[in-house]
Amino acid sequence: MHTPDYPSLALHVAGRWITQASGGQRPVINPADESVLAELPLAGAAELAAAAESAQRGFASWRRTSALERFTLIRRATDLLRERAPAIARVLTLEQGKPLAEALREVTLSADIIDFQAEEAKRLYGRTVPPRVPGLLSQTVLRQPVGPVAAFTPWNFPMNLPARKLGSALAAGCSVVLKPAEETPATAMALVQCFLDAGLPPDVLNLVCGEPSEVSSFLIGHDAIRKVSFTGSVAVGRHLGELCARGVKRYTPELGGHAPVIVCADADLDFAVKASVTAKYRNAGQICASPIRFYVHASLLAAFSERFAAAARALRLGPGLDAATQMGPLTHARRVVEMQTLVDDALDHGARRLCGGQRAERPGWFFEPTLIADVPAGCRLATTEPFGPIATIAGFDTLDEAIALANDSCYGLGAYAFTAHLHTAHRLSEEIEAGMVGINHFGISQPEMPFGGWKDSGHGQEMGAEGLLAYTDLKTVYVGTP
Ligand code: NAD
What is the arithmetic mean of pLDDT over 5-13? Predict the structure, then answer.
């Protein structure tokens, strides 16, 4: 059984690809038609130990390479990634479901993200500090790679999220054990292959899949691992944080969000609706910074709701490989069940369905683009990240009220607003409690800019200059005269 364009699956452990492992195997499913794409080998304790030890060996040599050597090698890898992007994008769409054009953009943007980090590693400056004690020649602050990294990435951006972690870790001089999501392993395999083909010493980069909780507890508990990076849900992020605390390991959690969108009375309505619908249903809403809670000024609420619902209803659902598709399926079956549960609970509590609200009648894990109005505070949709194609909408009268509504969440990842007034934009950017704020713009994830959340959405950043620093430790050096 084998799907054309989809590779056989393997783990990269201790310098070689292995197609059988002691944890058994599981199928990888095409979410657009629920067919089996391939069988994925699963690592057990033997392969996990081998991967961690390999990363330790890899770190011993990689940390000694110069930033320029690392940069040159990483640039070769991203050249390969760009060359292979069309084929990799097909693999990504087959296992994840998003439209092919979105998959292709994800792959090429990932190359840009990695390049930025490799460039930035050439500027990983330390500093010298004037000594206060006689006889001290110099006091220097150095940044050194933190050590072997365990990186855990989810299935919604199977290339972009591994790229964020690998790009920074490898550029900083760290080795990595990557555990991509078991739902979408082939895209991560393709990225690892680019690095290997570019000449990366094989021990520097291991890739394992398995039972997620067993893999994470094994790797985080292993002495070789010095740093952990995780993207996923708050519940898992909190659990991994506890495991890291036991071993006093550095940890960067990038968790969920429940992004508000404030549409002010002075907003350009056509522009706001068009941008909002595109951003909401991109990747079928499976984005941590996806807009979710729309708060619209009372004067625009009826028109905004009507136009938003009409545009959402008009979106063409289908397999990502079909060029006409605007929204693909959800990546796994449990997300469809979760969407229905959230919608039904909201409607039972008195909310109103403006469009969508149920599984689409076709094969595959499709859920209709959905807009729900007047969601009462007590129901799950008011506070739970849907991580799917559901938006909520409510009105407001004053900006104070809108800001209070937006901030009334345990999350603080992305937040958005539409306004034509500069002073309103300033006020919102000051007062919104979120790591990233987009005003008249949903593009808050750019390679040059740090990306990270406040509150339960996590701490630390990926990308930008800060993304690289997260993979370094400080060392102070004092040199005296004998
Ligand atoms: P989940 O939390 O079970 O899984 C999310 C990811 O974490 C998956 O890739 C999974 O393999 C991994 N994971 C799960 N348990 C783990 C463990 N103990 N150790 C290591 N990795 C583990 O949730 P799900 O049903 O797959 O996804 C839905 C939820 O995940 C959403 O509600 C959303 O909040 C969150 N999510 C967030 C992001 C993000 O970018 N922040 C991405 C994907 C999923």
Answer: 97
- What is the residue with the minimal CA distance to atom 23 of ligand 1? 233
The interface predicted TM-score (ipTM) is 0.95
Q: Is 356 left (phi over 0), alpha (psi -120 to 50) or beta?
A: left
**250-254 vs 227-231, strand pairing mode:** parallel
Asked if 228 contacts 250 with a C-beta cutoff of 8 angstroms, the reply is yes
What does the alpha-carbon distance between residue 120 and residue 396 come to, in Å, rounded to a whole number? 44
The ligand 1 site (C-beta within 6 Å) comprises 152, 154-156, 181-182, 212-213, 216, 231-233, 236, 239-240, 254-256, 288, 334, 385, 387
The pTM assigned to this predicted structure is: 0.97
For residue 22, the Cα-to-chain-centroid distance in whole angstroms is 29
Structure tokens, 268:
């350009």
CA distance 391 to 265: 20
Expressed in angstroms and rounded, the spacing between residue 236 Cα and the centre of ligand 1 is 7
Q: What is the Cα–Cα distance from 99 to 283, expressed in whole angstroms? A: 8
Q: Find the 154 Cα to ligand 1 centroid distance in Å.
A: 6
**With 60 as the cut, is the pLDDT of residue 1 above it?**
no
Distance of alpha carbon 463 from alpha carbon 449, whole angstroms: 6
Name the CA radius of gyration of the chain, rounded: 23
Rounded CA separation 308/302 (Å): 10
Over 70: is that where the pLDDT of 172 sits? yes
Contact call for residues 41 and 10 (beta carbons, < 8 A): yes
Q: CA angle, corner 192, sides to 333 and 279, nearest 5?
A: 45
| Model confidence pLDDT, tens digit, residues 180-224 | 999 999 999 999 999 999 999 999 999 999 999 999 999 999 999
